Amino acid sequence: MSHRKEPDPENAQRDFEDFVHQRFSGSFPNFSSAVQPPPPRRDPREEDATNWDWEFPYKPKDVKRFLDRSIMKQDEAKRALAIAICDHYNQVKAVYNGTDAGTEEYTKQNILLLGPSGVGKTYLIRKIAELIGVPFVKADATKFSETGYVGANVEDLVRELVSQARGDLRKAECGLIYLDEADKLASRQRSPGRDVNGRGVQFGLLRLMEETEIDLRSGHDLQSQLQTIMDFQRGKLGRGKISTKHILFIVSGAFTGLEDIILRRIGRGALGFQTDHTRIPDVNGPIFDQATSEDFVTFGFEPEFIGRLPVRVACHPLSKDDLLSIMLNSEGSILRQYQKSFRAYDIDLRFSADALDRIASLAHAEKTGARGLMTICEKILRPFKFELPSTMIRDLEVTSEMVTDPQGFLERLLLDYENTLH
After folding, report:
1. Among 73, 149, 349, 365, which is disulfide-ready with 145 (CB 3.0 to 4.6 Å)?
2. Parallel, antiparallel, or unpaired: how do β-strands 213-215 and 241-243 relate?
3. Most confident of 208-212, 348-352, 365-369
4. What's the CA gap between 151 and 145, in Å, rounded?
5. Cβ-based burial of 298 (10 A; exposed 0-12, middle 13-18, buried ≥19)
6. Contact 64, 82 (CB under 8 A)
7. Could you give the CA distance from residue 259 to residue 122 in angstroms, rounded to a whole number?
8. Could you tell me if 267 and 134 lie in one domain?
9. pLDDT in tens, 3-58
């Protein structure tokens, strides 16, 4: 009895590529525009958006209290984010519940988040997405280029949002897109050629941040084109686009060099340029709070791009005391993470007050914010995590002596352990 052999997708794709090269001399036609299937039959449930009961019960103080559990300091940034998030999702709730007749007057509050590395910018947005239960996509701006060039396309961010929502377009259309290292898109060097990784990406994002519809399948991806054709042949037609109208965009970066631009602008208004230093904000203090659209344009952003980011939120550098508070009080404390990892080997890990103070000092010297805590703790505890699980040592207290000389402390600890065995 013969069995029908199932087609191999990889062989089918390879055969199709060979056909394209032979038929079109290597030029791949864009089937999304060449093939125009008849309008798909829509699910009746999708016809009326008011059928969806959007739940958003939070007030700004609720959002900030939730963020306070995991992120220390940055109080002003948390307040600004809480207000912007509540304003946006209250508007989305009104639209989807059909209670707002004036939606055309609403201006989406996309957010520009700036501050040095390691102060919690990404973590803030990730926790907000967790609280309100919307899909969240995070990407680095450096991987994108203008459409049609080598590199990722900014529209892929929206498609990834659909993937994170597991195909639920309604949910994806209310998601969060977070673009880190956006300061790398600045184009301060005006060159004769096209800046496809700077200005080009800015204009690509500008279109997304305003309001547009994005094809769910990329017109520049062979696999997506094949899937479109196969679905069409099978009669598997569904909604082919997603609107960005209610997707909230947050772009962030360290913006190194923006401080100097701000200071030069402020200095121009001071009598006797920088003669009265009390008029010039401390570079390590709230200097970013004084940034204007003019400063961002000077930095290298297009006026249209920066104009679509009306909410400006600044995060500030962390002090040694801030780092100590993060270790002791944050819900996701790195101390508890290390205690949990040692507990897996039945080892009780404790930290003395002097040790925590020393760790905070060393982490602050790293100048990488809260990430410095991981760097220092890993340097101290890695050799102990390697050696102690193979011994009967079940108790380890991290002291200031151990922080200063972890290898010497470990050698003495193992020597004492060996002596107890003999």
Report:
1. 149
2. antiparallel
3. 348-352
4. 5
5. middle
6. yes
7. 21
8. yes
9. 555 555 556 556 655 654 555 444 444 444 443 444 443 433 343 333 445 678 99
Please give the structure tokens belonging to residue 386: 């390697």
Residues 77, 221, single domain; the answer is yes
Distance CA 334, CA 341 (A): 11
Residues 328 and 305 in one domain: no
pLDDT digits over 118-135, tens only?
888 999 999 999 999 899
Three-state SS at 27: coil
Is residue 270 located within the same domain as residue 381? Answer: no
Residues 6+ away with beta carbon under 8 Å from 210: 244, 308
Alpha carbon distance 204, 220 (integer Å): 15
Structure-token pair, residue 208: 């997304």
For residues 121 and 127, is the Cβ–Cβ distance under 8 A?
no
For 128, half-sphere exposure in the C-beta direction (CA atoms, 13 angstrom radius) is 32
> In this predicted structure, what is the pLDDT of residue 197?
57
Q: What is the pTM of this model?
A: 0.73
Residue 96's nearest CA partner among 46, 136, 52 is 52
Supply 230's token pair. Answer: 């196969």
Side chain identity at residue 406, one-letter code: P
Residues 253 and 276 occupy one common structural domain: yes
What does the chain come to in residues? 422
The answer to whether 232 touches 78, Cβ cutoff 8 Å, is no
Cβ 254 vs Cβ 115: under 8 Å: yes
Ramachandran angles phi, psi of 394, nearest 5°: -120, 10
- Pair of tokens at residue 127: 């926790």
| Residues 93, 98: Cα–Cα separation, whole Å | 8
Instruction: Name the more confident of 189 and 412.
Output: 412
The span from the CA of 167 to the CA of 234, in Å, is: 19
Q: What secondary structure letter does DSSP report for 29?
A: P
Q: List, for residues 369-379, the tens digit of each pLDDT value.
A: 999 999 999 99
DSSP category for residue 100: -
Q: Which of 381, 383, 387, 367 lies closest to 337, judged by CA?
A: 381
Select from 314, 332, 366 the last residue of a domain. Answer: 314
